[in-house]
Amino acid sequence: MEDTVTDSNTKDHVGLIRLGGIAMLVGFVIHVVANAVIKVFPPENPSLAELQTYLSNEAGSWAIVHGIRYVAMVCIVLFAAGLFVRTCCTRSTPATGWGIVGLLGEGMMVVKIGDRNS
């Protein structure tokens, strides 16, 4: 594959930008596999007995899905960092304001979700 990047500032960060793109694809695959293949959803409007049976039967798959979720969180952070770097490299002015707020907000979301589920 030929590198077509012409901006020298972008060339310095090509590895992180590509890592962010790969992380996005891996995170997408994790979510599709976890939600469409591994996880079995409960019946609609279950009674208490049906819900207890469902949770006891699917405890293993739910543990796998929740364990994989942390890998997906790392992928989200890597994608956000790669996107931020790519955006910074294509702008003529330094990144300030909303780009930094978005990156920090995404990081806080991951920390909050991880804190809530631990």
Provide the number of structural domains: 1
Give the overall silhouette.
Answer: elongated
Beta-strand content bin: under 5%
Please give the count of helices: 5
Radius of gyration: 19 Å
Distance separating the two termini:
42 Å
Average pLDDT figure? 76
Features:
single chain, 118 residues, elongated
What does this structure look like?
The protein has one domain. Helices cover 76% and strands 0% of the residues. It is built from five helices and no strands. It has helices spanning 8-11, 14-38, 48-57, 59-90, 98-116. The mean pLDDT is 76.
SSE diagram, text form:
Layout: H1 8-11, H2 14-38, H3 48-57, H4 59-90, H5 98-116
Helix pairs in contact: 2-4, 4-5
Produce a short descriptive summary.
Helices cover 76% and strands 0% of the residues.
